[in-house]
Every structure is written in C-alpha cells, then in structure tokens.
Amino acid sequence: MRQRQSNVVALLAPNLANPAMSTIAASTEEALRRVGHVMVLCDTHDRADLQDEYLAAMAAQLVRSVIFLGAVASPALRAASEAGEVFLFVNRRNPHDERAPFVGIDNRGAGAAVAAHFLANGHAPLAVIHSDHSSSAVRDRTYGFIDVLTKAGIAPEMLMRLSAPGDDHLDIGYQAAAAIVAAPQRPRAVLCTSDLIAYGAHRLLTEAGLAVPDDVVLVGIDGNPINPWLAPWLSSVVIPYEDYGPVIVDSLERIWAGEDPGERLLPYAFG
C-alpha cells in the first residue's frame, strides 16, 4: 500500500442476474487468480449513481484497475475519463470515449449476421426488439441488423423496431412482444438483441397462442449454454463469454505496462 497499489482488481457489472454477465465474471476471476490478483465484484444494477459510488469506493481502496462490464454514462466516469484515467471496458464501450480499451465482439457484425440469415431464409416481414438503453452494444447490434436490411431494399414499413422501458430484459421482451401479436401484418422473424429478451418475447407469444418458431422465429444474441436444454426453439449468435477472462487479463497487463491494448474482438458464431 505504500506504493499506492494493490493486487486487487474491481469488476463492475450491470446485472449479475444475466447469465452472460456472471459467466464473464467467473472467467475473469479465474484468469486474475492465475496471475496472483484478487477480484472484487460489484453489481451496479445499470444505475449511474451506484456505478459512481463503487468507482469512488474502489479508488479509496487503491485497487489496481477497474473493469467495467457494461458501463453507463455517469458524472464520475466522465470526469475520470477526461482526466486521463485508464479503465478497461467489456461488452459496452466507454460511453464518454469509445476509443478507450475494449474487450467484446463486433456487435454490428453480429446484428448483420442475423439480418443475412433472415434474408437467406426468405423471412418477411421482420422486427427487432431491443432495450431502450443507449449502450454501444444495443446500438451496434440494432444498426448492424437494420443496415443490411436497408441495403437489401427492405422498406422501413416492413421492419418493426420494438422496445419497452426498464432494465429487465425478460420484461422488455415480454412487453415489446405484445406489439407483434397486435400487428396487422405479424413479423415472421424477430431479432432479440439478447437471449433474455427472446425468453420474455417467447412467453408472451406462447400465451397469445403463437408457436415459436412455426409462427414467429426468434433469434437472440448471447448463446446462453442453457438454450439447448430450456430454449431449443431459440437460435442465437453465440458469444464465447467463458473465454473472456484471459483476454481481459492480457489487456490489463498491457495497461499496467503502459501500453494501449486497443480493442480486442472475440469471435462469435451463429448457432
């Protein structure tokens, strides 16, 4: 502590109830432990005030680094970023400076892959369900999807963009899917920007008497390992969350060495 440095690394997660977040956290903890570091895990619940509270608390504890596993815009993060403090951002880019070190996937490419899949299978009309959160992941997945459809000549009226307020992806999917049921021309296929959104949408659709995928095709982005067991109806873009830990630690070690790790994009697969 006399050197104002410890072997403790903080990971600030937005929602540990999300299997994707807990998988990344477990992978990161294991990778840090292998290089002699201890991880402190905090759940910000996607709240800017809690994120800032944890950021201040971790600074007081002299943690060596802070990893943001889904950052939101907040006054303290903005001030720290403008002051030149270096953090590592995972899944979502720094909302105040998207050039900051990042580990994740090509979210725009993932959305585009789903659009290409829908076009190849002749699905129309189409829809996308996303949270109203202005994160880079939501934005890029949605825009990547729409961009491919636009270039393919899909008219705007043939694409429904659906969302619902709140941070609970299950509830967002459930509430937004009501518009699918009520639509005069029901979408044949729907991109859900997370698997949890797809789970919520599936429940509403089945309650309305619709079969998935026979009546409506749902595709998520995450590739939750429980899908084959509990959601065999769901196709998903599979993200290797269990492999994030070593990449995160390698990026941290580059930061500690005074280097800029830049962005580290992991592969994804449509499954």
Automatic annotation (TrEMBL):
Organism from which the protein derives: Chelatococcus sambhunathii
Residues that span the membrane, as ranges: none
CDD domains in alphabetical order: PBP1_LacI_sugar_binding-like
Name of the featured protein: Transcriptional regulator, LacI family
SUPFAM superfamilies referenced in this protein's UniProt entry, alphabetically: Periplasmic binding protein-like I (SSF53822)
Domain Periplasmic binding protein/LacI sugar binding residues, every copy: 8-217
